[in-house]
């Protein structure tokens, strides 16, 4: 009897749990960082992390929203999927904003959520939330693991689905009995996805059609979106644009896919884009969209969007083609493959020097402008200085709003994966945690989080994380003591009724930073700016810079809601 | 226009929820959905009847369906030679003396009475949606107490005409 009991104990020692199996699959997927927050339903997984010598790090955020935005920043900068772990119920629901954000901006994320044990699912158990129900409309795919035997397959599928085709978030919901259960499974790399085969290579006939349209175009224009960055197609895009001397407009998320300082670049198009880019779209006769989804903030009133143009649309997601804008030449393909196919042909084009000159003149004659205050800090000028002090080399993250648009306008990005912003969902509170992920993904780069005083207060608890890990993130608060874009719209469309958009009782951000043990600075005069940022950017550690800017500055030019892309207001002073 | 769309999907929990959720989110107007297992284990077939405004919306619908990870194949079979059937159960009121009369009405439809009580009888009818609808309207004067339909299920006929005509076989 005694011998048998001893034998039992020894066997128990060797047993692996579902959690061990999960960690094994993460190691195999070459995960290097796990962004997470523990809780009851994921205790077995955290215990397995503690016991194992997994060769990856766990970054403990202070709120699950911090975890997931960090994972998004990491994914944007590295091109690898960001991996998130949260507990059931409130842990999972705290991720919803980030999941939706990643879905809208096509970022690859794998999100593991704990779930109550199988036996009590559906009984409104403690910390139970219907994660499958909640995340279905905001994920590329989601899974609930019912059996330990399915765990490796599901995790493998999740990585494959999230990071191929058009990337997106995938949720894997793991009941506690699965993560705690004994696993007899051998690890396997298998997965089974018969219905998922993204089209990578373009249809040759469509490429011929596109080349043919190009050969007849007198006013061609390229529109480059984030799909170019995802497909790592920037070099091909540059070669294509240069070979045919095609002017390039960028979407907000596509900034950096084509060098912003290039002579062919017209800058950002859309609501707060350049006059040159928008008039280019309005007047072109061939619009080649590469990896952008014709978002309504880009197009304005659809009736006036590229009204006389043949539209070619290259996108890996067929459902985006023809969704908002009817397309004459659809090309379902990875941007890199499509551009390679186009480059493999030689097409002769009619002379379009006049067209190029017209756009160039628009660019020179109607640049972005602002009223310089000379004493108080003008926010646009501030962004120009940040650009110049960082030599345009920084990775910049933002929230949504005025500071985001000023950054897009005054910080030209020359390389992909340097610009991390919440485009589709427009998420306040995104910028700072995204900077944490970006810094972890690119430890040697200067990471600057440009945030508003409103947005920063949504996720500033993550200051603990940068302190703890000594991440040298530089946080620039563009502080106008208001929800600036809301205030601007109230000024323009609600007769200056500033309903709940002013924040005169903001905290002292310097003291706040100091309370976290972080270096804090305040800037409220123009003559302090350059010196301060020169010091800040060379400082080896996190810094919070509270920049008091002109309160009533507005983002110009812009296209009012319902107006066409040619009806920009505030183009000139 | 009414379209009949079929989808072959992986038989996993949550797939129907994902698909109907997507249709709802994108404001597609669904007349009916029917789902059941198929000839292959692990695969289910869905048949959607959708009221749709224009071809652009229709294209978007099939593309969005195709985009779902668990969807293996999507076909718009409206303009093909197809067999399409739905089942309806119709409970009509009326005492015994009406039974013979109702029998006379339903006979040409090859419908059958499957339940009789003192003050009602239940009729089962299978067929194309317009045939089912025709019977329902004939029975309406007798007072329909309860009506339920399965929604259309359909697939292609074994043989397709060489040239697909523009006739909408849904109404034939």
UniProtKB/TrEMBL annotation, chain A:
This is Acetolactate synthase. Residues 17-133 form the Thiamine pyrophosphate enzyme N-terminal TPP-binding domain. It comes from the Bacteria. Its cofactor is thiamine diphosphate; Mg(2+). GO terms for cellular component: acetolactate synthase complex. Its EC number is 2.2.1.6. Residues 209-342 form the Thiamine pyrophosphate enzyme central domain. The keyword Flavoprotein applies. GO terms for biological process: isoleucine biosynthetic process; L-valine biosynthetic process. The lineage of its organism: Bacteria, Bacillati, Bacillota, Bacilli, Bacillales. Residues 399-547 form the Thiamine pyrophosphate enzyme TPP-binding domain. Pfam families: TPP_enzyme_C (PF02775), TPP_enzyme_M (PF00205), TPP_enzyme_N (PF02776). Belongs to the TPP enzyme family. It comes from Virgibacillus phasianinus. Binds 1 thiamine pyrophosphate per subunit. It catalyses: 2 pyruvate + H(+) = (2S)-2-acetolactate + CO2. Pathway: Amino-acid biosynthesis; L-isoleucine biosynthesis; L-isoleucine from 2-oxobutanoate: step 1/4; Amino-acid biosynthesis; L-valine biosynthesis; L-valine from pyruvate: step 1/4. PROSITE patterns: TPP_ENZYMES (PS00187). GO terms for molecular function: acetolactate synthase activity; flavin adenine dinucleotide binding; magnesium ion binding; thiamine pyrophosphate binding. Keywords: Amino-acid biosynthesis, Branched-chain amino acid biosynthesis, FAD, Flavoprotein, Magnesium, Metal-binding, Thiamine pyrophosphate, Transferase.
UniProtKB/TrEMBL annotation, chain B:
The keyword Nucleus does not apply. GO terms for cellular component: cytosol. Gene3D superfamilies: 3.30.70.260, ACT-like. Chain A, domain 2. It comes from the Bacteria. The keyword Amino-acid biosynthesis applies. Pathway: Amino-acid biosynthesis; L-isoleucine biosynthesis; L-isoleucine from 2-oxobutanoate: step 1/4; Amino-acid biosynthesis; L-valine biosynthesis; L-valine from pyruvate: step 1/4. SUPFAM superfamilies: ACT-like. Residues 4-79 form the ACT domain. It holds the Pfam family ALS_ss_C. GO terms for molecular function: acetolactate synthase activity; acetolactate synthase regulator activity. PROSITE patterns: ACT. Its EC number is 2.2.1.6. Keywords: Amino-acid biosynthesis, Branched-chain amino acid biosynthesis, Transferase. GO terms for biological process: isoleucine biosynthetic process; L-valine biosynthetic process. It catalyses: 2 pyruvate + H(+) = (2S)-2-acetolactate + CO2. Dimer of large and small chains. NCBIfam families: acolac_sm (TIGR00119), PRK11895.1 (NF008864). Catalyzes the conversion of 2 pyruvate molecules into acetolactate in the first common step of the biosynthetic pathway of the branched-amino acids such as leucine, isoleucine, and valine. Belongs to the acetolactate synthase small subunit family. This is Acetolactate synthase small subunit.
């Amino acid at each position: 009897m005694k011998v048998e009991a001893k034998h039992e104990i020894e066997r128990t020692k060797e047993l692996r749990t579902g959690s061990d199996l999960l960690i094994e699959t993460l190691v195999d997927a070459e995960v290097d960082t796990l962004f997470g927050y523990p809780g009851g339903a994921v205790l077995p997984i955290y215990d397995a992390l503690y016991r194992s010598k997994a060769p990856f790090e766990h970054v403990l955020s202070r709120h699950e929203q911090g975890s997931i935005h960090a994972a998004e920043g990491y994914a944007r900068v590295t091109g690898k999927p960001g991996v998130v772990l949260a507990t059931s119920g409130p842990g999972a629901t705290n991720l919803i904003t980030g999941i939706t954000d990643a879905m809208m901006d096509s970022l690859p994320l794998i999100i593991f959520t704990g779930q109550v044990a199988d036996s009590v699912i559906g009984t409104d158990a403690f910390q139970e939330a219907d994660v499958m129900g909640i995340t279905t409309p905001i994920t590329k795919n989601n899974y609930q693991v019912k059996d330990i035997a399915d765990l490796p397959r599901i995790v493998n599928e999740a990585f494959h689905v999230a990071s191929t085709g058009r990337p997106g978030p995938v949720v894997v919901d793991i009941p506690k009995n699965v993560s705690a259960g004994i696993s007899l499974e051998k690890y396997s790399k298998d997965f089974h996805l018969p219905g998922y085969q993204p089209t990578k290579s373009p249809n040759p006939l469509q490429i011929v059609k596109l080349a043919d349209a190009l050969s007849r175009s007198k006013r061609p224009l390229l529109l480059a979106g984030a799909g170019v960055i995802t497909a790592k197609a920037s070099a091909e895009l540059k070669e294509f644009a240069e070979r045919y001397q095609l002017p390039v407009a960028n979407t907000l998320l596509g900034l950096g896919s084509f060098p912003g300082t290039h002579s062919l670049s017209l800058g950002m198009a859309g609501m707060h884009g350049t006059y040159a880019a928008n008039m280019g779209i309005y007047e072109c006769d061939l619009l080649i969209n590469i990896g952008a989804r014709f978002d309504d903030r880009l197009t304005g009133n659809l009736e006036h969007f590229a009204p006389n143009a043949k539209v070619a649309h290259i996108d890996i997601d067929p459902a985006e083609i023809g969704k908002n804008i009817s397309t004459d030449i659809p090309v379902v393909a990875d941007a890199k493959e499509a551009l390679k196919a186009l480059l493999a042909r030689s097409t002769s084009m009619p002379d379009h020097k006049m067209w190029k000159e017209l756009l160039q003149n628009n660019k020179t004659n109607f640049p972005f402008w602002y009223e310089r205050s000379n004493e108080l800090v003008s926010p646009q000028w501030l962004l120009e200085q940040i650009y110049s002090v960082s030599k345009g080399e920084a990775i910049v993250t933002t929230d949504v709003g005025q500071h985001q648009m000023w950054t897009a306008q005054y910080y030209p990005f020359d390389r992909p994966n340097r610009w991390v912003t919440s485009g589709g969902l427009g998420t306040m509170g995104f910028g700072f945690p995204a900077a944490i992920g970006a810094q972890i993904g690119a430890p040697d780069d200067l990471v600057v989080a440009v945030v508003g005083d409103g947005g920063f207060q949504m996720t500033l608890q993550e200051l603990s994380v940068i302190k703890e890990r000594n991440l040298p993130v530089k946080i620039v608060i563009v502080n106008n003591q208001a929800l600036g874009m809301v205030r601007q719209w109230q000024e323009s469309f609600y007769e200056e009724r500033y309903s709940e958009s002013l924040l005169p009782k903001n905290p002292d951000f310097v003291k706040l930073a100091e309370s976290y043990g972080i270096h804090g600075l305040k800037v409220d005069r123009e003559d302090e700016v350059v010196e301060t940022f020169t010091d800040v950017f060379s400082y080896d550690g996190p810094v919070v810079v509270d920049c008091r800017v002109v309160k009533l500055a507005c983002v110009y030019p812009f296209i009012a809601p319902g107006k066409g892309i040619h009806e920009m207001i505030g183009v000139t002073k | 226009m009414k379209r009949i769309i079929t989808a072959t999907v992986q038989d996993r929990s949550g797939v129907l929820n994902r698909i109907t959720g997507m249709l709802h989110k994108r404001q597609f107007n669904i007349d009916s959905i029917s789902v059941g297992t198929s000839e292959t284990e692990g695969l289910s077939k869905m048949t959607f009847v959708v009221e749709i405004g224009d071809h652009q919306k229709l294209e978007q619908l099939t593309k969005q369906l195709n985009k779902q990870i668990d969807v293996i194949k999507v076909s718009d079979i409206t303009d093909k030679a197809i067999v399409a059937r739905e089942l309806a159960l119709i409970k009509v009121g009326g005492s015994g003396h009406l039974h013979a009369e109702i029998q006379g009405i339903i006979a040409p439809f090859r419908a059958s009475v499957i339940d009789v009580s003192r003050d009602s009888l239940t009729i089962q009818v299978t067929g194309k949606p317009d045939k089912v609808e025709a019977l329902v309207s004939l029975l309406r004067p007798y007072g329909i107490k309860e009506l339920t339909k399965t929604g259309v299920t359909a697939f292609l006929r074994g043989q397709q005409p060489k040239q697909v005509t523009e006739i909408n076989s849904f109404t034939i």
